[in-house]
């Protein structure tokens, strides 16, 4: 192990933050005093670190084979320099493409999707409540003003989407993957729509229905425990939003997903798809072991597509994209806000998780600490991204709209969004 140790000593000396590495035999390598202290309990962790396999090192941390002390911002700066190559730049062969499609088919049945969503979102409502904003909006915020607090930026995001969709009182509005109801309730309370939300999370379903009752919105707001594939197409919606949901759909189902949304939307209506997209055009998941980490501990079955592929699937469904906005740095800022909030109350978080996760509580907390800070790093670096795609279902009426040929309620200007 001596050559590997010398290699790591040289790499640590080049880092912009002071890192000290404690090896399994007690030997210390790196800077003292250090901003980040990493304690390895077996030699395979050292091999993962030397190879730039940050995600595999993260798995060792979750499993208690590595201990880390120090600020997570400093840790992520160090991690970005220890990764050997661009984790969004991985390529694949024809065989990996075949394997990926086959895996996507098997991982996205009705039953598996429900189980995978519940694995993540039903960890504990109280746990998420510790670090999300009061509305529990679990998606990228919109920092219209860079000095906004998280709660303000989340409300700005909800309103940004409502304005893009041109929501009007009395319109039938569908929110696919409605989470804890942030968008659903904002649209109903501020824009007067008749709103339907769906989720596969039992916890979220119960939480939102309590809010609907408390707010007296039962006459025109409803939250259903339902898969998008099971939605009734008998009465179409004027407007549809899908926020932070299509990452769970799977490449194998992407055509069917957009075709379903097409059938659920009235001709001339608007749909906004807000979701995480891949930073590379040909990578199946993030490299450096990060994709495997997220698959194992956070989002089983999650799949990312580059925005160019999203547009291809969308167009294939006969929806027409009319506006695309990249919010990547906004998500980095959002994730750091979540991470900092969790870090400020680790003791409370562990106590909450022990009530639901039992013996797994420590592992769950360690996984989320790395997940939030690691994803913040990935969005900052451009390894992954976030796009809002606004689309129409053309009604083929050349006289419909504010401009001839609009074939929809979309005005083909952006003034209405920001005015």
Please count the helical segments. Answer: 17
Total DSSP E strands: 11
Radius of gyration: 23 Å
**What is the topology, as strand order, of the major beta sheet?**
7-6-5-8-9-11-10
Average predicted local confidence, pLDDT? 89
Show unreliable segments.
94-100, 102-106, 114-121
The string of secondary-structure elements, in order, is: HEEEHHEHHHHHEHEHEEHEHHEHHHEH
**How would the global form be characterised?**
elongated
Q: Find the structural class using helix and strand composition.
A: alpha/beta
Helix content: 40-55%
User: N- to C-terminal separation?
Assistant: 63 Å
Write down the oligomeric state. single chain
SS strand fraction: 15-25%
Largest sheet: 7 strands, mixed
Describe the protein's architecture and organization.
There is one protein chain. The protein has 419 residues and is α/β, with parallel strands linked by helices. The chain is built from 17 helices and eleven strands. Strands 7-6-5-8-9-11-10 form a seven-stranded mixed beta sheet, sandwiched between helices. Strands 2-1-3-4 form a four-stranded mixed beta sheet, covered by helices on one side. Strand 8, helix 11 and strand 9 form a beta-alpha-beta unit. The longest helix is centred in the C-terminal third of the chain and has 21 residues, at 361-381. It is elongated, with a radius of gyration of 23 Å. The model is unreliable at 94-100, 102-106 and 114-121 (pLDDT under 50).
């Amino acid at each position: 192990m001596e050559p590997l140790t010398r290699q790591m000593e040289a790499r640590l000396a080049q880092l912009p933050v002071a890192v000290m590495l404690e090896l399994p035999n007690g030997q210390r390598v790196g800077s003292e005093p250090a901003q980040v202290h990493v304690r390895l309990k077996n030699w395979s962790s050292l091999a993962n670190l030397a190879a730039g396999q940050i995600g595999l090192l993260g798995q060792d941390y979750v499993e208690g084979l590595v201990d880390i002390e120090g600020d997570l911002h400093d840790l992520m700066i160090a991690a970005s320099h220890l990764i050997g190559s661009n984790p969004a730049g991985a390529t694949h062969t024809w065989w990996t493409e075949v394997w990926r499609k086959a895996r996507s088919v098997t991982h996205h049945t009705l039953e598996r999707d429900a189980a995978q969503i519940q694995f993540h979102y039903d960890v504990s409502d109280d746990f998420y409540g510790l670090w999300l904003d009061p509305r529990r909006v679990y998606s990228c915020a919109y920092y219209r003003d860079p000095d906004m607090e998280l709660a303000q930026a989340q409300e700005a995001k909800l309103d940004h989407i409502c304005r893009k969709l041109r929501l009007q009182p009395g319109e039938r509005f569908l929110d696919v993957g409605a989470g804890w109801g942030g968008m659903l309730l904002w649209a109903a309370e501020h824009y007067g729509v008749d709103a339907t939300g769906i989720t596969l999370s039992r916890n979220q379903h119960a939480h939102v229905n309590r809010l609907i009752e408390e707010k007296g919105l039962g006459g025109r707001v409803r939250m259903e425990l339902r898969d998008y594939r099971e939605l009734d197409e008998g009465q179409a919606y004027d407007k549809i939003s899908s926020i932070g949901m299509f990452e769970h759909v799977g490449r194998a189902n992407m055509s069917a997903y957009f075709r379903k949304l097409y059938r659920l939307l009235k001709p001339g209506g608007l749909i906004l798809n807000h979701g995480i997209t891949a930073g590379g055009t040909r990578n199946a998941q993030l490299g450096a072991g990060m994709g495997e980490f997220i698959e194992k501990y956070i989002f089983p079955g999650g799949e990312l597509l580059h925005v160019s592929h999203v547009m291809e699937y969308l167009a294939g469904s006969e929806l027409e994209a009319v506006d695309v906005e990249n919010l990547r740095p906004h998500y980095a800022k959002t994730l750091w806000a979540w991470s900092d909030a969790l870090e400020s109350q680790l003791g409370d978080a562990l106590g909450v998780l022990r009530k639901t996760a039992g013996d797994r509580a420590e592992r769950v907390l360690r996984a989320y600490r790395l997940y939030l800070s690691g994803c913040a790093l990935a969005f900052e670096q451009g390894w992954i991204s976030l796009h809002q795609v606004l689309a129409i279902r053309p009604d083929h009426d050349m006289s419909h709209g504010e401009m001839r040929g609009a074939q929809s309620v979309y005005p083909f200007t952006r003034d209405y969004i920001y005015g």
